[in-house]
Amino acid sequence: MASSDTEDISGAPEIIATRQQTRFHLIEDKRSSDVTIEQLTLSIRAAGGAGKAGSKTAKTGKSKASSSAAKTRDILVDTDLRLKAGVHYGLLGRNGSGKSTLLRALAAKVIPGLSLATRIVLLQQTATEDGSDTSAVAEPRTAKTVLQYILEGDEARNHILEELKILSRTDPGDGEELGQLRAYRRLLYTRLQRQLAEAQKNAALRSGARGSQARKELIVFEKKVEEARNRAENIEEPIESKECQDELAEASLLMDELQAELDERRLGDLEARARKVLSALGFTDQTMQKRFNELSGGWQMRCMLASTLLQDADIMILDEPTNFLDLLGIIWLQKYLVDLQTESSKTVIVVSHDRDFIDHVCQEIIMIKDQSLVYFEGNLTAYEEDLQAKRVNLTRLKEAQDKQIAHVEKTIINNIRAGKKNGDENKLRQAVSRQKKLEDRMGMQTNAKGGRFKLSRDMAGFHSSKRAAIEIPPEESAVSITIPVAPDLRFPGALVSLDHIWFSYTPRGAAVLQDISLSIHMGSRIGIVGLNGSGKSTLVKLVTEVASPTRGTVTRHPRLKLGYYSQLAVEELRAAGMADPSMTALSTLAAEAAGEMDEADMRGFLASFHLAGNTASHVPVAKLSGGQLVRLALACILWKHPQLLVLDEVTTHLDFYTVQALGRALRAFNGAILLVSHDRFFVKSVIEGNVELLGIDEDDEDELDDVEQTKAEMKRSLYLMKKGKLTLLQNGVRDFEQSLESKVDKLLAA
C-alpha cells in the first residue's frame, strides 16, 4: 500500500513524498545513520495548490491531490533511497533536477519510513530572508553574537535548558510548592505534546491493519494529552496529598537529573570547539563578537556552516558548503570531513559545484538522473572514468554487432532469394534459422553482473524480448553554453595595462594594492587566486573602472568592450527582482540592450543560456534559481560581444555540469579572460588549459589539435594575490594548494 507525507511551507512549494509499504511495515523510532527507503516517489506542488496529499473532499471522498495533478511535478519516481552509516555521499544532478528538494524532504523527515528519532541537520545554500539559520535544528537567533549563535545551536543542550526553564517558572500568586507542582505538570504536558506530534506522524505513515490500530491508539493518546493539560492548569488536589507530594519529589529529582546532564555538556568545551571551527573559517576574535545580523551574507553562511558542523547529528547535509569560502577554508573543510570519516559514524551528504572538493570528500556518488537515484561506489572522477569506459566498450560492441547483423541480414535475403528461385527447402530453413538467431541472440551479451548472458537465468518467465538492446549511455554533460565571438580591434595593443599601481581606500590608509603591473592582451588567460581580503576584488575594480588607482596608471584600448561579472551579480539581480515582481529575464536583457536587439534576437540569445520560452518571459526574476540568475547575468554582459571578460567567482550557484560547459565555452572564446576564483577545477581548466578536465574526448583528434593550437596562441598566467602583491605561480594552482595545506594541518592540530 502507498504511504505518503507532505511538507507545506507557506509561500513555498509543497513537498509530497510517497512510498510502497506493506501493512506489516514498522518504523523504528530510534536514532540511526542508516536509511533504506524503497520505491520512493517525491513530488513538489506549487504554492497555493490543493491541500495535503491524501486529504479527501467531503462530497466525493477523492483525494485533492488528483485535482491538482497539473500543478505537481515529479522529482523522483519509484526509486530507492539508500544511505549507509559513516559514508560520505556526493549528491549530483543538473540545476533543477531536485537535489535541494530531496535534501529538504530528508531534513523535514517527510519521507515515509524515515525514523523520526534520527537527528538530521541541513545547511542550505542561502540564509532565509531574515538572515536566520535554515537548518532543521536551529532557531532564529540573529540578534546574538557569532559565538552565541553557535553555542545556542546545540539542540540537545537547548532542549535541556528549555525543560529547566519550564520547571523553574511559576505563576504569580502560587505558593512555592503549588508553583513547583504546576511547573512539573506543565513539563509533563509539554513532553506529551512532543510525543503526540510524533504519534500523529507515525499513524499517518502506517497502513493497513497496523495503520488502523495506530490511529485508534492516537485517539486514546490525544485524550491523555488533554487530561495532562487540564491537570497542569487546574490543580484540584490538596497540596498535602500523597499524590502531590510524590510529584513534588519527582520534580526535584528531575531538576537534579537535568542539571547534571547540562553539566556534562560543558559550555566551555563547546565554546572551545566553536572558536576553533570559526577561526579556521576566517573569523577573528573581534568578528566572533559581532552580531549575526550585522554580518554580510557570505559571513552569515560561514557562521551557519560552523553551527552545522558542531551539531550532534546522525545525518549531516551540506548544500554548497564551499560557497563564500576561500581556498584555505575549502581545504580546511575538506580535511575536516575526511578526518570525520574515521572518527564518526555520521552519514554526510554533500552537494557542491567544486569538483576537487567532491573528489576529496565523497566516498560514493548519488546521481539524480531521469527521476531516479543512481549509485556509484567511488568519487566523481572514478564515476566519470567508469561511465566513459562503459560508453567506449558499448560503442565498440554495438558497432561490431551492427556489422554482424548487417552480414546475417544479407545472407538471409540471399538464402530466401536462392531458395525460392531453385525451390531449395534447405536454403529457406537456413533463412528461418538465421532470422531466429537474429531475434534471440542479438543485444547485450553480458548480464547486469558482468557475466555471460543466459536466457533461462537472466530473463526467466514471460518477457516480450529475449535480450536488451545495447544502449550507449548519453553524455552526462549535455549542457552547452555559447559565448559570442569578440570583434577584432582595428589596431593592436593591450586591452588593459596596469603600470606600477598602488591603491588605498583613504589618503593615509594602508595600501591595499602595492606596485602591481599587469597587461592583458587579446587571447590572454589570466587567473588570480588568494585568500579573502588579499585585494583580488580591489584589483578587479581597477580593471573595470569601478575605482581609480592612488598611484600609477591604468590604460585601456580605446575600442575595448569589457564584460564584468561581479561576485554579487546574483544577489543584485535577486534584490532587483524582489523590488519589481514584474521583472523577467527578457525585460532585464531588454533594459541592458536598450533597443539594440529585437525580441526575437533576445529570446534566441537567452535560449543559448538555457533561459527559453516562458522561463525567459513569464517567470519573475525573483523566482529564478541561483544557476538561472548566473546565466542571466552572463547574458546581460555577453550580448555586446566584449573583448575582455572579467569573471569574479562566476561558478557559485552553478552545478558541475554547467561549470564544465562554461569552461569549454571559455576555452573557445577568442577574447581575453581575467578570472578570480576559488574553484580549483575551473582555474585549472580555463587558465591552465587542462584538456582532461574539460571533458574532451581523447578520440576527437580535431578538437585536441584545436586545443593545442589555442594553448600555443594564448598567454596563460596564474597569479597569487597576497597582502596586496601579485606573484606568478610557476606550477599553477598546485603551488597555492601546497602552501595552504601546511596551514590547514596546523589549524586541525591546534
Write up what this structure looks like:
It is a single chain. The protein is α/β, with parallel strands linked by helices and 750 residues long. Among the domains are: 109 residues, no CATH class; 77 residues; 175 residues, 3-Layer(aba) Sandwich (Rossmann fold), CATH 3.40.50. The protein is built from 25 helices and 19 strands. Strands 6-7-8-5-9-10 form a six-stranded mixed beta sheet, with helices on both faces. It has a six-stranded mixed beta sheet with strand order 15-16-17-13-18-19. About 5% of the residues have low confidence. Keywords: ATP-binding, Coiled coil, Nucleotide-binding, Repeat. One of its GO terms (molecular function) is ATP hydrolysis activity. This is ABC ATPase. It comes from Cladorrhinum samala.
